[in-house]
From TrEMBL:
This is Exocyst complex component. InterPro entries: EXOC6/Sec15, EXOC6/Sec15_C, EXOC6/Sec15_C_dom1, EXOC6_Sec15_N, EXOC6PINT-1/Sec15/Tip20_C_dom2. Residues 253-262 have a biased composition (Polar residues). The lineage of its organism: Eukaryota, Metazoa, Chordata, Craniata, Vertebrata. One of its GO terms (cellular component) is exocyst. Residues 226-274 are annotated as: Disordered. Belongs to the SEC15 family. Residues 46-105 form a coiled coil. Gene3D superfamilies: Dsl1p vesicle tethering complex, Tip20p subunit, domain D, Exocyst complex subunit Sec15 C-terminal domain, N-terminal subdomain. It holds the Pfam family EXOC6_Sec15_N. GO terms for biological process: Golgi to plasma membrane transport; intracellular protein transport; vesicle tethering involved in exocytosis. Residues 417-766 form the Exocyst complex subunit EXOC6/Sec15 C-terminal domain. Residues 48-215 form the Exocyst complex component EXOC6/Sec15 N-terminal domain. It comes from Apteryx owenii. It comes from the Eukaryota.
Length: 807
């Protein structure tokens, strides 16, 4: 077993040595062979080596047999090439010989010169290869400058300066280019700044068009919101105004700094047909590329801060010009609209610049401009709106201000101060409404006939009842034709009050007010209408010189019905504002007070007019105070006066009982006082008993006729106290019952309780003067002397009575 193992190891070792011989370089085979000779199995290795050589020979023989035909072909081709190579050799030899012969004629100096020229040409080509890109870049720069592509020109200039010129800086033309680079930069700055100035000027001129477009968009959005609010199922989510602007293809055209268009404003011609379908975006009207190019150019040139300061300074100046309102702005709504359009256009541009540039303008700058604009705009509106006297213009102005505020609010500007100012304009609007309705009420009151409204059929009756809340079961039962108790101005005034309320409600729309605030505003304005405007109009009608008693009576009736209708006005306001009158702090209408005051004024005017009429009749009284015998009938003036009072009191039957009684009582008091004044006036210095008897006849006739014609108003009681006093006085003189008067004076049961001793003394003095001057010889007759003494005695007693009661 050990011998077999040694044999296997020897065989393996020999195999390794053979592989090493086959794979090892010949120069390094020595150590391998030495290992063979050092071993004891040299003979066996040689056998193995011989066997391996025989194997390799057999393989070589096989390979040669396989490639023999190719070898033969290769030898044949090689023989052919040898012939051609010989021919080529002969030709080269011949050419060399000829060249040598020709070269004998060329000198060495000429050859050197040609070599030098060849090197110069090669160097020139190399230098031109370096210079041509520089010249090409410079030519490209000039072309870009000529075509106003300033930003690409600036980039080309940078490449030229930093990449190309350093490679050929030692050439003189390059030095000229290097010296010209700052001038080119300055030229680019000046040209780009000129484009910016043109852009700013165009923006200034077209701000109103930009603002008009933005406000139209806001109006469209508001209309859309209203439609969505009315049809909530359709709404898939509302967008803000700014989102609508962004979604309406508002991307600015050619905003890249590489843009070659320099116009600041695109085509802004009106296209009404297109605008009916869609309103173009406000920014679609503007090409902002001049701003962007100029900003990039100045940024590249390291002068961005200078550019920002210049831009902001110029825009501030433009803002001040935009915010300066025209002097006649208040005359038409178009003046306000143009003013608002310019402001909106200005801030739409600034807002777009804010969001499309980095740092040219910032939020602080925009907020500062807006604060200035807001204060100046509010001041201008306060001033110019104060000139507006037409409520329709004020209402249109309010709607325009709301649209103006909504538009700018859509761009993120705070507008609370504008809505606060609208509350101030609301007060002015109320004043203009009051002035307008003052004229309306005057026309209604002036054109009214102050007669009950006649109704001839059911249609007219229902029409009037539909205009004015009136219910009267007795009137409804009456057959046609019939009359309403009030005149035409009652339903007209009532409807105008409702129109006024509607007008107030219109102003409160879109002001973001609560229902309670709207209700309070309407009620306060309506109270002013009732207590100031309508009240003044009624007072003016009542105080007119030519107003008649019939008209005054109708005014009292009309105001009574208007007073009753105030509760319906309360309900009307409640229905349109949805604020219950029981709500805390709800303002109440003062209509009841207004109509009561008007009615009281009319009543007083009735009393005054009636008294004036009585005075006019009494001015016709022509008593003969010296007559000795009275006539058998009443005086003519008194007959006419009684006829007038009868017709007047007949009209009073339509008045409330208390008013009629008060009017009659006032008339009787005034008549009684005036009649007594006839007796006591200083011009009547003397009177006779016959004159007193005639006067007494007139008084009794007056009382008798009036009591007989108006028994159902108990006129006897009304006339009793004012006339009875005069009758007692006249009875005292006619009956000459002084002893009874003097004896019972001061007693509750006195017959002449209402006779004033001072009045009696005045009449007695006038009769005494008459007795003295009536007959110069009366003192010689005993009866006359006794009568004179009696008068003197009574007069003395009356003076004593007066003095005793005054102490």
């Amino acid at each position: 077993m050990m011998a077999e193992l040694e044999s296997l190891e020897t065989a393996a070792e020999h195999e390794r040595i053979l592989r090493e011989i086959e794979s090892t370089d010949t120069a390094c085979i020595g150590p391998t062979l030495r290992s063979v000779y050092d071993g004891e199995e040299h003979a066996r290795f040689m056998e193995k080596l011989e066997a391996r050589i025989r194997n390799h020979d057999r393989e070589i023989e096989k390979m040669c047999n396989f490639h023999y035909q190719g070898f033969v072909d290769s030898i044949t081709e090689l023989l052919k090439v040898r012939g051609e190579a010989q021919k080529l050799k002969n030709q080269v030899t011949d050419t060399n010989r000829k060249l040598q012969n020709e070269g004998k004629e060329v000198t060495m100096e000429e050859l050197k010169q040609c070599r030098l020229q060849q090197r110069n040409i090669s160097a020139t080509v190399d230098k031109l290869t370096l210079c041509l890109p520089v010249l090409e870049m410079y030519s490209k720069l000039r072309e870009q400058m000529k075509s106003k592509r300033h930003y690409p020109a600036l980039k080309t200039l940078e490449h030229l300066e930093h990449t190309y010129l350093p490679q050929v800086s030692h050439y003189r033309f390059c030095k000229i280019m290097v010296d010209n680079i700052p001038k080119l930069r300055e030229e680019i700055k000046e040209v780009s700044m000129s484009d910016l100035k043109d852009f700013l000027e165009s923006i200034r001129k077209h701000s109103d068009k930009i603002g008009e477009t933005a406000m139209k968009q806001a109006q469209q959005q508001r209309n859309l919101d209203n439609i969505v609010s009315q049809h909530p199922r359709i709404s898939g989510g509302k967008k803000s105004k700014k989102e609508v602007c962004a979604s309406s293809d508002l991307e600015v055209k050619n905003t890249s700094p590489m843009s070659e268009q320099d116009s600041g404003i695109l085509d802004v011609e009106d296209e009404d047909e297109d605008e009916e379908v869609t309103v173009p975006g406000a920014q679609d009207l503007v090409d902002f590329s001049p701003v962007y190019r100029c900003l990039h150019i100045y940024s590249v040139l390291g002068a961005r801060e200078t550019f920002e300061n210049y831009y902001r300074k110029q825009r501030r100046k433009q803002a001040r010009l935009v915010l300066q309102p025209p002097s006649n702005m208040h005359e038409t709504l178009d003046g306000y609209r143009k003013y608002f359009n310019q402001i909106v256009g200005f801030f739409v541009v600034e807002d777009h610049i804010l969001h499309t540039t980095q740092g040219l303008v910032n939020r602080a700058y925009i907020d500062e401009l807006w604060e200035m604009a807001l204060s100046k705009t509010i001041a201008a509106l306060r001033t110019h709106s104060s000139y507006c006297s037409d409520p329709s213009l004020v209402l249109d102005l309010k709607n325009l201000i709301v649209l103006f505020a909504d538009t700018l609010q859509g761009y993120g500007f705070p507008v609370n101060q504008l809505f606060d100012m609208l509350l101030e304009i609301r007060d002015q609007y109320s004043e203009t409404l009051l002035k307008k309705w003052s004229g309306v009420f005057r026309n209604i009151l002036d054109s009214d006939n102050y007669s009950p409204i006649p109704v001839i059929n059911e249609e007219i009756y229902k029409k009037i009842v539909g205009q004015f809340p009136f219910q009267d079961a007795e009137l409804e039962k009456q057959p046609f034709p019939k009359k309403f108790p009030f005149s035409e101005f009652v339903p007209k005034v009532y409807n105008q009050i409702k129109e006024f309320i509607y007008a107030c409600l219109k102003f409160s729309e879109d002001l973001h007010l609560s229902s309670t605030e709207v209700d309070d505003m309407i009620r306060k304005s309506t109270n002013l209408l009732l207590t100031r405007t309508l009240s003044n109009c009624l007072q003016n009608v009542i105080k007119r010189k030519n107003v008649g008693l019939t008209e005054l009576v109708q005014i009292i009736i009309n105001t009574t019905h208007l007073e009753k209708s105030c509760k319906f006005l309360e309900e009307f306001i409640t229905n349109i504002t949805n604020v219950l009158p029981e709500t805390v702090h709800t303002t109440k209408l003062y209509g009841t007070t207004t109509f009561k005051d008007a009615r009281h004024a009319a009543e007083e005017e009735i009393y005054t007019n009636l008294n004036q009429k009585i005075d006019q009749f009494l001015q016709l009284a022509d008593y003969d105070w010296m007559t000795m015998e009275p006539s058998s009938k009443a005086s003519e003036y008194l007959v006419d006066l009684i006829g007038f009072l009868r017709s007047t009191f007949a009209v009073f039957t339509h008045l409330p009982g208390k008013v009629a009684q008060t009017a009659c009582m006032s008339a009787c008091k005034h008549l009684s006082t005036s009649l007594m004044q006839l007796l006591l006036e200083a011009e009547v210095r003397q009177l006779t008993l016959g004159a007193l008897q005639q006067f007494n006849l007139d008084v009794e006739e007056c009382e008798r006729k009036l009591q007989s014609h108006f028994p159902r108003f108990s006129y006897s009681l009304l006339f009793l106290f004012p006339l009875k006093r005069r009758i007692n006085l006249l009875d005292l003189f006619i009956q000459w019952d002084w002893s009874t008067y003097l004896a019972d004076y001061g007693q509750p049961t006195c017959k002449y309780l209402r006779v004033n001793p001072t009045t009696a003394l005045v009449l007695l003095e006038k009769m005494r003067d008459t007795s003295r001057k009536n007959n110069v010889f009366a003192q010689f007759r005993k009866n006359e002397r006794d009568k004179q003494k009696l008068i003197d005695t009574v007069a003395k007693q009356l003076r004593s009575l007066i003095n005793s009661h005054h102490l």
